[in-house]
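S2.1 Query sequence (Trigger factor)
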Amino acid sequence: MKSAVETLNPTRVRLTVEVPFEELKPSLDAAYKKINQQVTVKGFRKGKIPARVIDQRFGRGAVLEEAVNDALPKFYTEAVNEGEFNVLGQPEVDITELKDGELLAFTAEVDIRPALEIPDYSGIEVEVDAVEVSDEDVDNSVEQLRERFATTSPVERAAQDGDVLTVNLEAKVDGEVLEDGVAQGVNYTVGSGELLDGIDDAVKGLEANGKATFTSELKGGSAQGKEAEVTVEVTEVKSRELPELDDDFAQLASEFDTLEELKADSRKRLEQMKKYDQATQAQEKVLDELLKLVEVPMPEKLLADEIQTRKHNLEHHQLGQMGLDLAKYLEIQGKTEEEFDAETKEQAEKGIKTQFILDELVNKEKLNVSQEELTEHLMRRAQSSGMSPDQFAQAVVEGGQVPMLVGEVARGKALAVVVEAATVKDANGEVIDLEDEEETEVAEAVVAEAEGTEDKPAADESTEA
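Output structure tokens follow.
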């Protein structure tokens, strides 16, 4: 077999391959054997029909077609390996010559990973928010905990902000009660902003058995998005009572004996959260700076496929779970379809660039992924997907996606290497030293967000670039 390569652009090549006919013999033999098992000829036993009879009865062309279809992937792969290309997606194959007994010639156009030069990235410097927890932050955290331990008791008075009501609802559109527009015994906290716009003004001042009617745009159901006339009946009014902020509350709501110990623990937790946010911010900003340093030619077909995959996952997974379609989502976001398309393209380009650059860094830095690192990553991905680790692992193995997960971990490690080499300062000018373990975990999450894989279900991942 002989092959030649023509570079069409930095991300696409055309392979021209010539195969001597004798190299087709294994595939020809396999073609005759396959046809033998599929046809019946009077006078011959099943599977024992001579080749010349098959040629006479069914045509030599049918045999050649079967043989070529069988052989093409093998010869294409040999040509790719000979050229040492990292191909992307499926090739466009064109058989240019097929002379029986002499020659098979074909061309294959395919996208390839562009060759990248990674410059010195040690000069990257970014600024992140400082980790500062105020007394107000601590008080708000304790107040949220206090809200969780609130108690309610029935009262015989008009409803006011903070009360918990039991209500019945009936929604009409164009004077007709909707089939799914009736709800009984719904609990609602006045002022929470939940359920329907306008309900707070309607129920304030109502006592038990009081009714009111208001107009609101329905947020879900069969008449989603339509204006409805809603009747609300209050069947019970309960006041909410918050526990006193003292040592007794600390013992009730936590493992601590005093309120001061509870507040100290809240401060510590808030600091940990802000440190994680700071690490995420550092990773994101360093990645953005790294992407600016490297010129990445963009394979057009790969970009188009990635845009389509992102749209598919948004429409059929994320929006589907929320009961929204794309048009309603764009309306909520206040975006036109053109703006959405431009944003999706920008995100897809960033995802592809991220993968290309970090994969190049994985090779350059000779980074490996251990079984322990892969298992930890799988556990985190399973948790974010809402699946059990066993279910997620099974979906990954059955989908042949283990190499994809290995790639995610490796790219996370590559980004962590860049962050380690960069200078990260907080808003106060202090140099930040991220913890190694946290650094790698956060890097994986940042890479997944950039590549758009954090919201993809395990069985529906796009093909790795």
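The first strand starts at residue 2 and ends at 9. Residues 457-465 have pLDDT under 50 and may be disordered.
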